[in-house]
What does this fold into?
Amino acid sequence: MAAIGQATEAVETTPALARARQRAAYVPDLLVEAHRVANTVIAGWHGRRKRGIGENFWQFRPYVEGESLSRIDWRRSARDDNTYVRDREWEAAHTVWLWCDSSASMLFKSTLAPVSKQSRAMVILLAVAEILARSGERIASPGVLEPVAARNAAERLAAAIDLRPDKAQFPDVSQINRHSDLVLISDFLDPAEEVIDKLAPIARRGIRGHVLEICDPVEEVFPYRGRTEFVDPETGRKLTAGRAETLNEEYRQTYLARREGISESLRRLGWNFITHHTDQPASTALVALHTHLSGEPGGGVREVAS
Amino acid sequence: MSALSIVFGAPAVLFGLALLPIIWWLLRLTPPRPRTELFPPLRILAKVLKKEETPAKSPWWLTVLRLLIAALIVLALAQPVMNPREVQISAEGPLVIVMDNSWSTANNWPERISVAGELIDDAEAENLPVSIVFTAEDTHNATPDTAARARERLQAAVPRPLHGNQQGAVSAVLTALESSGIGTLAVLSSGLTANDATESWQSLLDRAPRDVMVFQNTTDGTLALVAASNEANGFAVTAERLDSDHTEIHAVTANDSQGRPIAAGELRFEEGATTGTALLTVPFELRNDFANISVDGLSNAGARYLLDESARRRRVGLLSAEPLDLSQPLLSPLYYLTRALEPFADLIVPEDSELGGAIAELVEQRPSVIVMADVGTVPDEVEDLLLEWITQGGLLLRFAGPRLAGGDDSDPFVPVDLRRGERALGGALSWSEPQPLAAFSEQGAFAGMSRPDDVTVNRQVLAEPSPDLGARTWASLADGTPLVTSRAFGDGRIILFHVTAEATWSNLPISGHFVEMLRRSILLSRSTIGAQGVVEEVILPPYRLLSASGAVTTPSGAVQPLKVRSGSLPPVSFDNPPGLYGTESGFVALNLMRDADVLFAFELPDYPGPVTHSEYMRAASVDLAPYLLTAALLLLIADTLIVLFMSGAFSRLTMRKVQATAGAGLLVIGVGLAGADNPAIAADERPGDAEILASLDRTHLAYVITGDRRTDRTSRLGLNGMTRFLTYRTSLEPGEPVGVDIERDPLELYSMLYWPITVDADPPSREAISRVDTFMKNGGTVLFDTRDALAGLSSAGVVSPETARLRAILAELDIPALEPVPQDHVLTKAFYILNEFPGRYRGSPLWVEALLDTDNPDNRPARGGDGVSSIIITGNDLAGAWAIDENNIPVYPTVPPDPVQREHAYRSGVNIMMYMLTGNYKADQVHVPALLERLGQ
It folds into this structure.
């Protein structure tokens, strides 16, 4: 019997970009929820639905003593006895940092899934980049791409990823400012404690995180039977199981417990955690990510800007 | 035949070893190659899979281990036998076995039997007649017979605690085989011989046996104890050995009559010497309990030396010219002698008060020593008797004195010629000072003793100067005049102390050196109870016998009584084997070896024919198969454990668990070791020690637990309040009050026992009351409180239940007459000045022991102050008044409710405590007015 899992070549970014665009077309514009970035002064294309620096009218409000007289809208004030100030809608861009894991374990693809984890991760990453770029947000990737606000940001990201020297390492995130968003895509197969140890300091810096776990269905279902030698694609370590089917239940519990542990810890840090199986369409993950990025998980009521 | 020759019973099986490479190949085979799967979450799987993690190939050493197991099994199946028997005897002529069964064969008798048995087996196979003869038997039968008969005789033979008579045995062989030749001569020698057997052997060898086989072990360690004697500084043991080429050290043990070892020593043979000695330095008293001396590790008759009464305590007769004045014992000359000699001698004092009769009576009892304290002249009629006794070995120990100083010149019982009169040193009319002693002479019995610094001599008798005076002097004063002189007299000896036996002339008798000097003197004497004391021939029945293996046994039927003639013991023989002869009250030890005996090595004369020398084999043949199989099984177990370990069966225990388990194990072992190390400490501890220790550091008020809960609580709270009050107001700071169960708890820890009488609880048992009685007799005081002031005690004629209960208790106690506290009693002024002793109630008097002289009130405190009343009775419920709760609020109201009464109740308690603890201290104060008045006069 042929092996269930196989290691694939790392996917090229260009076809991935094409597919990503395809996926991104299904998804509406992403307006990154930015109520926490009140002080970001970089102008963007999208109104923030609050007063601030921008070009579009937002509201009239009564003049308050001490304000600059130049801000008074005299036209409106002339209409009655009150003095009004014209507020404009704040139009600012938001920086979203994107990163996807490209380690050896991500290159795994099983017979149950159409693509490898890395391929799926890359597609989602570029799709998100595409959506964000479309919305005028600033896109960056730690260690790969400095923040850039351009319509072709997704292409630039894809090119940068191709050129990046070491793909497997977890990136240096020290350059990320607080109030930015960080999207991490990986399989997170390390023990839950190690993952959290890595992510918790980032979260404490005020960075909002969206973690997407990509998993191959084989990793979750564990369909192996009989005498099987398991090889770790990263370390090359081998384990031989006499009867692999006997391990099924115990392994699944351990695997799911790890996911549950990461999810719970991230939730406590205020981050989002999404699991995506490679046998599902990439759009599902993309939509979920979109929801979280736009700050409306489950379509809930948007928090009113203060 | 080498010592380690191995023969295989089934050598064909050894070809099985050729299978080992196949087994190796089989072992190297690995299980079917698993399907290889890439699996990224391997780290998660690893947590689950640990137990099945096996390397593809077993390590080389495990393979070697398994091959070893297989090899061992193959070897075991080949039936290896170590040391197969290869004895060959000549195929012609009768087999002659001369077998020693003397005392030294007992150590390895079974081996000798098996060697002889194999020879007989060989003879039986060859159908040869066998002549077997044993050396240590009374009759030697060497008639050739069938092998079966010879085997029966061999099985019946036992080692004897005797010397082997090889000459007799060989002569018997010569006689029996006069007509026929000798096929094989097998000599199963003990290594020892009598010194006169060489000629007999030569004549036997002259008969030209075809084959000569000599079995003989090395004679290392063949030794025999030859003498033991009680010396001044220890028990000396002498032993003989055969070879003298190296230094040899053995441990010797002295056993008492029950066979218990009571002393140990080291028997040392110097290189080149066949005689070794040991000295058991143990106290004299212990030496008297020695029943035999044995060499450790050797079980034969030569290694055990029996002791009889001759090594025991000496019998000492005491003689004094003046009658024993019991009214002034310290001035009696025999007083110090008795005290000094008692520990190590049996003392006899004659019944006859007349000197001549007394000496005759003493000599009659044949003592070892006769001590004469200041006997001037021996009466003529007993002089010869005494002289004969001394000549035969008696020791006469004399002390000087006024009578000796004034005796006549022809006294034969002095070691040196004496000047008449005594010499006085010091005193009002003398210039000279009392003389100390000089160092002891190196020749006498006192050699080696340290010089006594504290002994001074005021008065002595002087010896006439003579050429041999110095040689006869054992001790002298600092100015050179002899203090102790001695002279051998026939077999006996006369010793003279030139001072008196009491402390009038010198303080020697009250110094410790006196005891040592006497002890050493008496050790010179001979015991006169043992064989030496027997004059005519006596016949002694066997009492205990020494077996060949050196055990002391009860006699068997074949042993004849021992005939002892005039002090000499007959030699050891078949009829009289070594042992104790006599009765339990007195016996003579007959030992295998005598003082002058030596051991002779057996040596066969040169023989031109074939002579085979061999040793007795320890084991004829050893089947090695069981050992090999056992080793294989052990290795198999080890292999199993290793496989289990490698498969991770043990690694399921987390490291922490292992550490905890190991730690606990170590702890258990440590505790066990500690417990084993300190059995004495552990045994000293008793349950309840901690409580006793805790209550010893401070004074505690104590109350009797009656069993009624309410009463006990009141007692506890009351004594708590009293303790607090005492702490505040006095320098006495008692500890927590203690409830005492008089049935069980130790009472002697407390000075005061408060005993509220309640009828709600069971009356105390008789044992408890007797304990309280002891407590009171030993100085404790019991404060009984009937708490019925309103009901009884004071009102005559009415008896409350509590009072009845108290009377029942007191009926069991031994108490003197009681009286209410008089006005001038110490209790009224022990701390506070009190006129009455109220508690919760007031009105009940406080009863104490009546002071004796009630008629004369003036004298009363003077006599009564010494004793504290051991019993105090009140009915006022003191504890009720004292009782306070945790907030220091009184628990019970007083009747009538009056704070002053409560204060007085506390003061009563303080006075009672002070009275009990200080006793007569305040009673003296009672006298102050009277004393002042007297002083004024």
Summary: Chain B touches chain A through 22 residues (CB under 8 Å). Residues 658-685 of chain B form one domain. The CA atoms of residues 518 and 646 of chain B lie 80 Å apart.
